[in-house]
Amino acid sequence: MAKYERIPGGEKNDLTGQPFNKKELEKICELYIEIDGKGIHENNPKIHILANELNRTVRSVENQLLGFRAYVTNKSGRKNYNSLIPEIWEEKNSEIKLSPEKNRIIKERELFDEFKFRISSQLKTILGKNLITDDFVAVFELVKNSFDAHAKKVKIIFDQDKITIWDDGKGMNRRDIIDKWLFIAYSAKNEGIEDVEFEEDKNKSYRDRINPNRSYAGQKGIGRMGSDRLGSTLEMTTKKINDSIYWNLKFDWDEYENDALDEFGDIEIKYSNANSTKFKNFENGLILEISNLRNVWPRKKILDLKRSLAKLINPFTLQNEFSIDFISQRELKKDLESANSIDIVNGEVKNFVFEALNIATTQIKVSITEDEDFIETTLIDRGSLIYKIKESNKYKHIPSKSNILLFYLNTHAKSSFTKTMGITSAEFGSIFLFNNGFRVLPFGEPNNDPFNINERKAQGYARFLGTRELIGQVSISENTEQFQETSSRDGGLLNSPGTEELRDFFIESLKKLESFVAPILWKISKRVGDNQETLDLTAKNQVLDFVKNIAGKKNIQLIEYSDELINYITENVEEQNLPQFDTLREIAIRANDKKGLLIIDNQENDYKKEIKRRKEAEKKAIDEENRRKEAEKKAIDEENKRKEAESSLKEKESQNLFLKSVKSQELDEIVSFMHSIGISADILNNYISGLHKRINRREKIPNEVIGNKLRQMSLENRKILAISQFATKANFKLYAEEVEGDVLEFIHEYLKNIVIPIRSEDIEIISNNLNSNQNSFICTFKPIEITIIIDNLVSNSIRAKSTRMTVDYEIIKENLNVNFRDDGIGIPEESVKNIFDLGFTTTSGSGLGLFHVNSIIESSENMNITVNNKIKKGVELILTFKK
Q: What is the dihedral of CA 71, 75, 81, 85, to 10 degrees?
């Protein structure tokens, strides 16, 4: 219950730390005298009001009041109070002329001659704030009194330091006030004469407005004393339903505490009556205005009370008969700022918990029939009936129409509950007890376990349910002598044979719910339990067997069972499900369901026909599938043959340009190759012979001439080497002449069939996309020159200590770029411009290879070569062809 909340580190304001002045202490002294030195605590509204008036903190005003008490009573031993307190107290003391004890007037005892009980005024405290120790329970008692007065609506109004409880019940006249309300511990309800006048024929016109045969929520005759728990002052206004006089009574409960020797009945009560009242639209009923509140009522406490009242009334028995409205002008602004309805003070108290759970989870309702001969049980899973049974009633003390309603809280239901209520189910409470429509405390409070089901769950965790998996209610239909509440109003029920039976009734009802939840719901893997979930085949078969076992028990009559059971079988047509028709047939026989038996027989026949039809359809489908597979295989074989033919044709076309392997050649082809070799050999011979003659003549030959001759000889030698390689692999008759063809295909074939086989031990050559069939590049070129360029580039990479060369291409508009990229030592940036110069080398070579490459390219009209020295490792040479 919400109270004054302390601020960590202590409450502070602008005057904190400044001593109280005399004027302030005089006001505090006046409050001390007003409350007679009692009720000095942080929840006393009078302290709050004075603290606000002085702009002081509540704790500091409370401390000064304790200082006055220490001085006045001299009992606490405290000496560190404000030095002005003795002076101020003595001044006030002389004014009010208190007795030497300073806090009460001693009344001389009177002598009584008769032996009889006398009632002290302290009885009010015993039956009031000492017996009803909780503010919420006090409000509950006053609301229950309104219900017993046949009120349709109760308004609870919160003002500054005042709570008003206003009902539209039957009200009271002078005789009722004297004979009933002021007769402490007397209950006309208990005597059975509370509404006797409305049962008479002369008051027939009022019987439609009340229900004289309704049971009562309270029968102790002390609930009215709840007003003393809430505040020290009470003003009561009432008018009976068939009367014209308004009665007004005023009570100062503190007057009953002045002297224990005062007789309870001797204390004067102020009263008046009139034909009108200050309250608008008040035709009949009772209005209690409780002021000088004993505790503070902040917004949180009011909201907690509203939520508690929502659990006070049984929504299934009083939903349309009785309502409670909260009214607080000071909370309207914050209500408008609240997005969640559960955080709004003003408005009707609504209990919608159980209705919200009706579909999303499993529930069981067990009821005593009206004739008290039987117990009826209905089990429902997420809105669908599982079974309804009837058995003999063994309970003698539980009234007819009493019932137990339990809900199994699966994960989805808990989540839905929290979303709806704004708190978890554990924080809300578990099993509530309603006696004649009103809640009995502490049943249902968080952590309350009156039936010891958590202890039972600990003995069989996987078989039993505890308070965390359950929410529900036990409803006792009548407030009989077997089910009497304790006088403290929050101590539950007095032990009796009836309460012992109630415990047994509850556990037996819980077992019925557990018999469905534990073996069926808990053993379904990955079950979430929401209302969209469908039970799998295993679960459905288990439900069928479960209902069959229930129906087969002795002394149990199956009244009704789920219409869905037949669908459990028929929605999945499987031959293995056929025995379940016999199970369902047994259930129908136990329920004497002749119509159901006919439906089962018809469904079984249709089921068997469907199985036969499906088997035939399955066989036909298998045959068609086999034929389809054969046709697919035949089509695949034909497609493979076509692809092989296309591949063979492509290979031949490729070999027209460059044959993979030549096993024999025509004589004229050999002659052509030999002729070319002879030409180059003759040129070499002439160069060598010329040089030899000049040497023999002892002619001085310039180095420039010698170098030039050597370059020419090297070029001719490379031609001979290339031609010799072609002699075993190529089929070119005029290799030294220009041809028009696919240069991309030529490069690919030359690398694949000549260079890679010969150079594989020296370097790994990867041609990424040269063999793509999607692109070709037709241009004029001399095959012999292409081979010389490739040979030189490969040789240079090997000398540069490369282990891998990557060759790929890209076609950009009318140009073909063939990229030769290696991972060797690369070329220094300052040397790039010189690599095509005669004799220049960065390796152990002669400096002739790239010079020859450049010479060939310069003599060509459609070739170019560039250097990319920006890669991480090695170098990239880009050979470009133009169409």
A: -10
> Is residue 873's pLDDT more than 70?
yes
Rounded Cα distance between 425 and 447, Å, is: 11
| DSSP letter for each residue of 47-85 | HHHHHHHHT--HHHHHHHHHHHHHHHH--S----S-TTH
Hey, what are 529's tokens? 């339990």
pLDDT of residue 567: 72
Residue with tokens 């024999």: 664
How far, in whole angstroms, is CA 401 from its chain's centroid? 39
DSSP per position, 123-169: HHHHHTTTTS--HHHHHHHHHHHHHHTT-SEEEEEEETTEEEEEE-S
Position 597 in a domain = no
Residues 133, 69, single domain; the answer is: no
Question: Is the torsion defined by CA of 231, 232, 233, 234 positive or negative?
Answer: positive
Q: Are residues 757 and 788 in the same domain?
A: yes
pLDDT in tens, 93-130: 766 554 444 344 334 444 445 555 666 666 666 766 66
Q: To the nearest 10°, report the CA torsion of 632, 633, 638, 643.
A: 100
Strand order in the sheet with 431-435: 438-439, 431-435, 470-476, 403-408, 362-368, 374-381, 384-392, 556-561
For 697-828, list the strands marked E by DSSP: 739-742, 764-767, 778-781, 804-812, 815-822
Handedness of CA 794, 796, 802, 807 (dihedral sign): negative
What integer pLDDT is reported at residue 320 of this predicted model?
58
- Distance between start and end Cα atoms, the chain: 94
* Residue 2 in domain: no
User: Are 291 and 361 part of one and the same domain?
Assistant: no
**Taking 80 as the threshold, does the pLDDT of residue 407 lie above it?**
yes
Say whether 231 sits in a helix, a strand or coil. strand
The partner residues of 655 in beta bridges, in order of sequence, read: none
User: Range with the lowest mean pLDDT among 156-160, 475-479, 519-523, 795-799?
Assistant: 519-523
203-208 average pLDDT score: 42
Domain count within the chain = 4
Q: Give me 45's structure tokens.
A: 């509204």
d(CA 516, CA 320): 33
Cα 81 to Cα 79: distance, rounded to the nearest angstrom: 6
Mean pLDDT of the chain: 79
Block residue for tokens 């309804």: 388
Residue 397 and residue 313 share a domain: no
- Which secondary structure element, helix H or strand E, spans residue 35, and what is its range? none
Among 81-85, 199-203, 330-334, 647-651, the least confident range: 199-203
Residue 509 has pLDDT above 90, yes or no: yes
Interval 585-628: pLDDT, tens: 888 888 888 887 888 888 788 888 888 888 888 889 899 999 99
φ, ψ for residue 219 (rounded to 5)? Answer: -140, 15
- Residue 691 in any domain: the answer is no
**Residue 787 dihedral angles phi and psi, to the nearest 5°:** -65, -40
With respect to residue 12, please indicate whether it lies within any of the assigned structural domains: no
The residues, ordered by sequence, that sit 6+ positions from 841 with a Cβ below 8 Å of its Cβ are 847
pLDDT at residue 762, rounded to an integer:
83
User: Prior bond to 442 cis, omega within 30?
Assistant: yes
136 and 275, same domain (yes or no): yes
State the pLDDT at residue 291.
94
The pair of structure tokens assigned to 614 is 């499906």
- Amino acid 534: pLDDT: 61
Classify 835 as helix, strand or coil: coil
Residue at 839: amino acid letter: G
Same domain, 175 and 250: yes
Query: Quick one: pLDDT band at residue 843, thresholds 50, 70, 90?
Result: confident
Q: Where are the alpha helices (DSSP H) in 319-410?
A: 332-337, 353-357
Point out the domain boundary residue: 80, 96, 112: 96
Rounded Cα–Cα distance for residues 745 and 427 (Å): 81
pTM of the model: 0.53
Span 626-635, average pLDDT: 90
Phi and psi torsions of 679, nearest 5°: -60, -50
